Amino acid sequence: MKVHLFNPENDLALGIDCLNYTPSPHARALHEAGELFPAWWAEADDYVIAPLAEYADREWLRENFGIVTAESFTAEACEPHPWGWSRNACRQFHLAGVGDACLPDRDTLSLYRDLSHRRHATALLKEAVYDGEMPVVTDNADAAMAAISRFGHGFVKSPWSGSGRGVFHSAGLAAAPLRRRIEGIIHRQGSVIIEKPLDKVMDMAALFRAGADGVKFHGLSLFEAEARGMYAGNTVAPQQYISERICDHVPESVLADTIEIVEKGLDRILGRHYSGPLGVDMMIYRDNRGEIRLMPCIEINLRLTMGFVAMAIASRLDIKQPRRLMWHRGMLPSGAMALLRPGKEFTPVLL
Questions:
Q1: Please, which residues have CB within 8 angstroms of residue 336's CB and are 6 or more apart in sequence?
Q2: Which residues, in sequence order, are CB contacts of 10 under 8 Å at separation 6+?
Q3: Which pairs count as long-range contacts for 106-111, CB under 8 Å and 24+ apart, including other chains?
Q4: How far apart are CA 154 and CA 150, in angstroms?
Q5: What long-range pairs does 117-120 form, CB within 8 A, spacing at least 24?
Q6: Strand-by-strand arrangement of the 231-236 sheet
Q7: Could you read off the pLDDT of 82-122 as tens digits, one per residue?
């Protein structure tokens, strides 16, 4: 039996790397509101860890969408499936009653954390023979400042962070405070990544699953992100629609070749050490000559992503016309379809 855990704070927990990580109020609210969210991609005989969910929450899912999940699981005979793996995720499974024999050991968790470091996105760009400006990964503040100067300005990224947190743009910051922020990242996480901003046309992602037989392509995702990288929503639609929207900008052959190259590159980087879902954020952008290009890797997310969720919802609801999936805060807008019982701080909705 699979046991699911929605822990969207996991990328931040990786940065802290401790058992008793305390998420920010925003991350905690999202976690608590979305406890039952995995029911959308779980099967009927799977269990979802949701200690704060009420009986009415489960009944609402059953009555509105026919979604039913198991009421219990066997501690020593289950498969834990988190949003993402970290020491803190392991602790949450343990507290929920999952047996130690079913959980990854300390060495495996350390390896997962290392593979989640943003430097591997740069390694994947090299595998893809990307001919643009490569990100700079450094543990030296002088080198980071020099890269920003060379790029004109840049995105500064922590090695571990998620949903736009731990990422900021250097524009508007004077040299002294910019250096202090960079030095702080290096002090906390050991290094920093500097990327040259691109003239974005469209955000997209390629989704994969890794297992004993290597990394295999799973599907495509279209998503929206705010200027500073915060997640804003996903397109929920048939895969053919998503592929066609991407190929409005780049040739189908370029998309197919990129996916194949990235798949092989991921296989070499992960080395069969990771098993589970992962997403590679990409970008369609205009280069300096105004030509449309496909950036093969902005981020590697070694976990579930909202792209996987969008695929699951499109399949479960047999979506034909594109809709928008997003987390909404407060009263639901007119025409929104709530995917969990409304009333908590955040609600996943289809618009």
A1: 328, 349, 350, 351
A2: 82, 83, 84, 85, 86, 88, 89, 162, 303
A3: 109/85, 111/273, 111/274
A4: 9
A5: 117/159, 117/160, 118/157, 118/158, 118/159, 118/160, 118/193, 118/299, 118/300, 119/159, 119/191, 119/193, 120/269, 120/300
A6: 292-301, 276-286, 199-211, 214-225, 231-236, 323-329, 346-350, 337-338
A7: 999 999 999 999 999 999 999 999 999 999 999 999 999 99
Q: Please tell me whether residue 86 adopts helix, strand or coil conformation.
A: coil
Distance of alpha carbon 237 from alpha carbon 324, whole angstroms = 9
Share of the chain above pLDDT 90, in %: 92
Tokens at residue 92, please?
């949450």
- Return the pLDDT at 229: 72
For residues 177 and 326, give the distance between their C-alpha atoms in angstroms, rounded to a whole number. 34
Predicted pLDDT at 330: 86
